[in-house]
Specification:
- With 297 residues, the chain is mainly α.
- It has two domains: 219 residues, no CATH class; 55 residues, no CATH class.
- It has 13 helices and four strands.
- Strand 3 and strand 4 form a beta hairpin.
- Helix 1 packs across helix 2, helix 4 packs across helix 5 and helix 10 runs parallel beside helix 13.
- It is elongated, with a radius of gyration of 29 Å.
Length: 297
């Protein structure tokens, strides 16, 4: 997954969860478009800080949230069934807004560079865009402004123009991006090692807090970062040996004694019997076994 695609997915999750600032929403939409479409599209760079951006972000957030949850829902699940109709309706509505492919003149300048900087593109990425623009101009045939004679090498058949799309509102490029990602999934080549198809999208819903999550590595997490430790602790408690907590506390207090006091304490028959029972009960407890090993018992 390249940097732009990862930025788009991460931004969409933040936006759908209701945690994105206006600038972050604009950056996410720009990432969904790609820089060529972003600088050519319906005044995107004029949205930042305007009422139009705020209004559209609030209007379409619930639709984007439903669509994302639908795409990462489990097959044959009740959630997929309940989200299917509104998600498909939202996708169809904004799919109709996406204009046909057009050709746009590529011109990377200082204004565009500053705009892309606002939308979170790194210096190295912006430098790559500039190099791409320069490469197109150096390999294309065109007529400079104010002149009548063509110049250039005429190596590129489309000249200084590149394919792009036109959109009507904020949700259109988001839907376009999601469908292009879906098409990538359909075009993938299955491997023999696959026991079942991989997830359609790289995101998931945390089963503990019900928020969308974009993991660092796909398929390696089940919960969001906030819920991982509590969920792991809960799972451990469910499978922990009987009376582990009480026995652990007893061993912990025993360990806190100095070696001499500990030896005197264990001379007592009742305490020796308790230690014997703890060892038998907590054979599978890594916590208790760690304390026993530390005390050489």
């Amino acid at each position: 997954m390249d940097a732009r695609t990862k930025r788009a997915w991460t931004g969409l999750v933040t936006y759908a969860n209701g945690n994105a600032t206006n600038a972050e929403v604009g950056a996410t939409v720009a990432a969904c478009m790609g820089w060529v479409s972003a600088v050519a599209a319906f005044g995107l760079f004029d949205w930042v800080g305007t009422t139009d951006l705020i209004t559209q972000a609030e209007e379409y957030r619930s639709g984007v949230d439903i669509l994302l949850r639908f795409l990462c829902s489990r097959p044959k699940s009740a959630e997929r069934k309940s989200l299917a109709s509104p998600a498909r309706s939202f996708l169809f509505e904004h799919g109709q807004h996406i204009g046909a492919m057009t050709l746009t003149e590529i011109r990377y300048n200082e204004r565009i560079d500053k705009s892309l900087q606002k939308f979170g593109y790194t210096p190295s990425e912006r430098e790559t865009f500039k190099e791409q623009s320069d490469r197109i101009w150096n390999n294309a045939k065109y007529i400079p402004r104010g002149q009548h004679t063509p110049v250039g090498t005429d190596w590129l058949p489309l000249g200084i123009k590149a394919p792009t799309r036109e959109y009507q509102d904020l949700a259109d490029p988001i839907c376009d991006f999601l469908m292009s990602e879906y098409q990538k999934y359909l075009n993938r080549q299955p491997t023999r090692k696959e026991k079942e198809p991989p997830p359609v999208v790289p995101i998931f819903v945390c089963p503990r807090c019900n928020k969308l999550v974009m993991p660092e590595r796909t398929g390696r997490k089940t919960y969001c970062s906030i819920c991982t430790d509590p969920a792991r602790a809960e799972k451990y408690r469910q499978h922990a040996p009987t009376a582990e907590g009480r026995d652990y506390q007893w061993l912990y207090r025993l360990r806190s004694k100095n070696p001499g006091s500990r030896k005197v304490f264990l001379r007592n028959q009742k305490n020796r019997e308790r230690l014997k029972q703890v060892k038998l009960r907590q054979k599978e407890s890594s916590r208790c076994q760690g304390l026993l090993l530390e005390m050489h018992l």
